[in-house]
From TrEMBL:
Designated name of the protein: WAT1-related protein
Biased composition (Polar residues): 362-373
Cell location: Membrane
Region feature Disordered, mapped onto this chain: 339-373
Gene that this polypeptide is encoded by: LOC113728727
Bias kind Basic and acidic residues: ranges: 350-361
Pfam assignment, any one: EamA
Length: 388
């Protein structure tokens, strides 16, 4: 029964992370639509976390009011760092890198997150490398396969593959405002910002694993994270964007994007990520990041009239294979941890202690026999010297 429960937990975690990436792919598409409509992405990030906080704070207050432990300074610090690294600062750094470099380069850098998370988690002893075990080799191999598949997906196109043709492009429908021209800047700075953003995202996952161990209330913790992210995001956007027309929301794609990204993406999916991090660890969560490329490509071909290429197909197959390898390795690792230690695996000191105890028992039994024999001999002697 315990084994079946572990298998069920592993399947549940996998399904939840696939759903998370599907939702995030929708956010990615809507970001494109909002940017095409002329919306400043810093303002979008600020609104996203404001909507997310407005949704998740009351939900967490009522759902976990009876089981919520006392909030400590340690947990508050974890939430503040998560709101900074995984929220406003991390996302704004990646968007700034996108402006200074290119969309292709940013997508490629994001795919390094599983590797960065794995290295940091091993260094902090949140993840066991276990290179000499089959499970450890599977985790390392799966992580490298995922990164390789994502790079293949990003940089290699190959011939065009026509699976379906919708001839439908939402960008032509939703674009009512002139889009802002891309800024030009320092390429080296863009590279640095992208790397820092990936490190921040990895730290966000790792800090959540630490928080889950001391504060097992994912809704309440997510509410704190999104609240701090909304503060940081709003202050950052106000400092960078003083054009108040950019803050206007109407009944258009801008409002739909910030509502969907905030309520569903940050308010609900952040809770799911926190739960899966507590169940399977930060590395397991990060390995699903390259899956976002596949879903974005599929949705983009359906609603943005984007093309699919052979590189997309080959990279997608490699990414999916990597997920299976990492999931298998993680399940084997958890199964090994939960198995009882066999009796023959006791330490040498315990064995020596048992042998010494056996020798003492044998000596005690022999002494008792000698005493019994001497006593019996005395009785015989008395009987001989004093016959009746």
């Amino acid at each position: 029964m315990a084994t079946m429960s572990k298998v069920g937990d592993g399947l549940k975690a996998t399904i939840l992370m696939v759903v998370v990436q599907v939702i995030f792919s929708g956010i990615n598409i809507m970001y494109k639509l909002a940017a095409t409509d002329g919306m400043d992405l810093r303002v979008l990030v600020a609104y996203r976390f404001l909507f997310g906080a407005a949704f998740i704070v009351p939900v967490a207050f009522f759902l976990e009011r009876k089981k919520r432990p006392k909030l400590t300074w340690k947990v508050s610090l974890f939430a503040l760092l998560c709101g900074l690294f995984g929220g406003a600062l991390g996302q704004n750094l990646m968007l700034e890198s996108l402006v200074l470099t290119s969309a292709t380069f940013s997508a490629a850098m994001v795919n390094l997150i599983p590797g960065i998370t794995f290295i940091v988690a091993v260094c902090l002893r949140l993840e066991n490398l276990g290179w000499h075990t089959l499970a450890g080799k599977a985790k390392v191999l799966g992580t490298l396969m995922g990164i390789g598949g994502a790079m293949l997906f990003t940089f290699y196109k190959g011939p065009n593959i026509t699976i379906w043709e919708t001839n439908f492009n939402l960008m032509k429908i939703t674009s009512h405002h002139p889009s802002h021209a891309a800024e030009t800047g320092n390429l080296a700075l863009g590279v640095i910002l992208a790397i820092v953003s990936c490190v921040f995202y990895s730290l966000w996952l790792i800090i959540q694993a630490k928080a889950a161990a001391v504060y097992p209330c994912p809704q309440s913790f997510t509410a704190l994270v999104v609240f701090f992210a909304s503060l940081f995001g709003t202050v950052s956007a106000l400092c960078m964007q003083r054009d108040w027309s950019q803050w206007k929301l109407g009944w258009d794609i801008r409002l739909l994007t910030v509502a969907y990204a905030g309520i569903v993406g940050s308010g609900i999916m952040f809770v799911v990520i926190a739960q899966v991090v507590g169940m399977r660890g930060p590395v397991f969560v990060s390995v699903f990041n390259p899956l976002l490329l596949i879903f974005v490509a599929i949705v983009g071909s359906l609603v943005l009239d984007e093309k699919l290429y052979l590189g997309s197909l080959l990279g997608g197959i490699l990414i999916i294979a990597a997920l299976f390898v990492v999931s298998w390795g993680k399940s084997k690792e958890i199964k090994k941890i939960t198995q009882p230690v066999p009796e023959e695996d006791t330490s040498i000191e315990d064995q020596e202690r048992e042998k010494s105890s056996d020798r003492n028992n044998d000596q005690l039994v022999q002494e008792q026999k000698n005493v019994s024999i001497e006593s019996h001999a005395d009785q015989i002697e008395i009987t001989i010297t004093n016959p009746k």
